[in-house]
Write a structure and sequence with these properties.
The chain is an alpha+beta fold. It has 7 helices and 14 strands. The longest helix is centred in the first third of the chain and has 21 residues.
């Protein structure tokens, strides 16, 4: 077993612990505070993050940790860092909707290299790693990879919308309409971590979103690459993960999605 593979299994173990904690609040309508008018945080976000950072520090000492609550959005990640989203999809979680996940990713030299994502309410977990040349992705213990869809009109695409969505193009509305007219269907589940994992395992053929944070997609980005997919900026250029304007696909429909989104 490679070092990255062993490390990803450690991340999965920690994500499972945090998911068990989070499930204590599921369907209980926990009180939610507002970080922004439409961006929520609950006590379970904070408790999950505390558990994760404690466990990571114990199991993987010496590796920097960037966790969502208290982090400064947009900061570039350099060197090696563990990137934590204690609950991705907090609005869903707070309302009792099942699409939320715990996500822990590893970035190495500023690039996604491993991770674990657990979506406890829907019973799915992903774990994988990517070393720049190849990797491995497992969904519920079975090997997974991106879809083979080549026609955009047969593609199932996912997206999302930022909490602050007053102005175009940042609100993503215009891009949504363009893609909706051309693709087979577009889904919006409310968890970027799950969306990008669904691209990696072949459920979705593509995904784009604006104004993400690096903790939303750190683990899933490694999975897409490990599963044979492609990631870019919205214009098709090199992704800037800390900027959060991202397209992830199976590779076959990538350029067409860029055309409709940009």
């Amino acid at each position: 077993m490679s070092e990255l593979s062993e490390l990803s299994e450690q991340l999965l173990a920690v994500a499972r612990l945090a998911s068990s904690l989070v499930m204590q609040g599921y369907r209980k309508r926990p009180e939610a505070a507002k970080k922004e008018p439409r961006d929520l945080v609950t006590e379970f976000d904070l408790r999950s993050q505390e558990l994760i950072t404690k466990e990571l520090s114990k199991r993987l000492p010496g590796i920097a940790i960037l966790a969502e609550e208290g982090a400064i959005p947009g900061e570039p990640v350099t060197g090696t860092a563990l990137i934590v989203d204690p609950i991705d999809g907090t609005t869903n979680f707070a309302h009792g909707h099942p699409f939320f996940a715990v996500s822990i990713g590893l970035f190495t030299d500023g690039l996604p290299s491993a991770g674990a994502v657990v979506a406890p309410a829907i019973g799915i977990e992903w774990v994988g790693h990517y070393d720049g040349a190849g990797g491995s992705l497992m969904r519920n213990g079975e090997p997974a990879r991106v879809s083979a869809t080549t026609r955009f009109d047969e593609a199932l695409i996912a997206t999302g919308f930022p909490p602050n969505r007053e102005q175009a193009p940042e609100n993503n509305f215009d891009s949504f309409q363009r893609v909706k007219r051309k693709a087979r269907a577009v889904r919006r589940c409310g968890s970027a971590a799950i969306d990008i994992c669904f691209v990696a395992d072949g459920t979705y053929d593509g995904y784009w979103e604006r104004r993400l944070h690096i903790w939303d997609i750190a683990a899933g980005s490694a999975f897409v690459l490990a599963g044979g997919g492609r990631i870019s900026a919205l214009d098709g250029g090199q992704p800037r993960y800390e900027r959060g304007n991202l397209i992830a696909t199976n590779g076959h429909i990538h350029q067409e999605l860029v055309t409709h989104v940009a």
